[in-house]
From TrEMBL:
Keyword Transmembrane applies: yes
GO cellular component: plasma membrane
Role summary: Cytochrome bo(3) ubiquinol terminal oxidase is the component of the aerobic respiratory chain of E.coli that predominates when cells are grown at high aeration. Has proton pump activity across the membrane in addition to electron transfer, pumping 2 protons/electron.
Subcellular location: Cell membrane
Primary localization class, coarse: membrane
Species: Simkania negevensis (strain ATCC VR-1471 / DSM 27360 / Z)
This protein's name: Cytochrome bo(3) ubiquinol oxidase subunit 3
Alphabetized UniProt keyword annotations: Cell membrane, Membrane, Oxidoreductase, Transmembrane, Transmembrane helix
Amino acid sequence: MTQSKAIKHEALPDPFSDEYSRTVFGFWVYLLTDFMMFATIFAVYAVLHKNTFGGPGPRELFDLPMVLNQTWILLVATFFVGLGGASAHRNSRRAAITYFVFSFLLGVIFLWLQGCDMARLIEQGATWKSNGFLSSYYTLIGTFDVHIIFGLLWTIVLIFPVMKRGLDIVSVRRLTCLRMFWQFLNIVWIFIFSVVYLIGVAE
């Protein structure tokens, strides 16, 4: 029993090892490039958000309670991702799977609410081609939603091997990167919620 536990303990990645550090650092570099892309899209939105060409603006179009619900769902999903990553580092397979599955389900709900919100705007005639404001808005939200879809697919790809074979050095390292990705998306969404929705409705 003791030998078995020792073997499992050795299977966990050492956060101070060179390979683990290189992987995490490399993923940080990727996130930095992603952040620069979002910053560019934010800048475009900042320039174009008042170009409504006489049409309805953020105050008339945005449903703040709906967006607030989306925000809470994403915050809770990211919280579960953090718990899942911590559980993976403790070699708690069942807890890691449970938390990541919860985060996946919440991510699906978030994406569904996003789809409902966009469908509502399109029904009102507020399409991507309507004006500069809506073009930049749909570009920003669409880019974010693509990242959410990627995160959901990535979760599926990583969780199924853990269900079958359990946790090992490679899977824990990959789950760490997945956790970082979701936390990055959470930070981006806080910026979107604050800059696009809150300030947009207040103006």
